[in-house]
């Protein structure tokens, strides 16, 4: 029998969704516990993740109430670390390829996503910088994609795809609804840039990721749009 795995998440957190995607793609049995991140229970930081953020997982130990995790289970946090962990405990899932070169490429893709897309993209949504760095990051990611392939690396869904997909879903919202603290129209303008021939390979990859059943199963677009609209309301006119 496999070890118990409990995922602590928030339904609208892109970092949590990375883990849900990997779990669904690996068909991995697990229990999910929703943490109210706006009113966090005291036990969460003291017993699960000292940093107090989702996602986090407990692994192993007895099957207990998620609100009272066992000291015998391992506690693992940071979405990219958890993704690697899932690939380790499900070595036959394809979450990481077997080939060491492709494994390195998947890790490089994750690192590039975190540094060059995630950071600039959320800075843009928050109205802290223009979309120039986001576009540069997307160009960098596009350069890593191989023509004619559906996935970030190799010919199978990996943690590299899980790492970027929630951000691609957020990007879709921004370019289709212009929601964010950036000056009015900049979300649409970013969309126009991305729809040009220069970004055709990236946009094909985006569509493939957004069409996956795992994405649809783990994502509530309307609620994320509402969250974006309420969190990112004061706009530069
Ligand atoms: N670098 C972290 C970021 C996690 C993160 O920022 N989680 C947010 C939700 S999207 C959170 O838990 N916020 C609650 C808080 O900071 O108190 C990761 O990749 O796991």
Automatic annotation (TrEMBL):
Domain GST N-terminal span(s) in chain numbering: 3-94
Highest taxon in the source lineage: Eukaryota
Domain GST C-terminal: 72-232
GO cellular component: cytoplasm
InterPro entries noted in UniProt: Glutathione-S-Trfase_C-like (IPR010987), Glutathione-S-Trfase_C_sf (IPR036282), Glutathione_S-Trfase (IPR040079), Glutathione_S-Trfase_N (IPR004045), GST_Omega/HSP26 (IPR050983), Thioredoxin-like_sf (IPR036249)
PROSITE patterns: GST_CTER, GST_NTER
Listed name of the protein: Glutathione transferase
Organism this protein belongs to: Suillus placidus
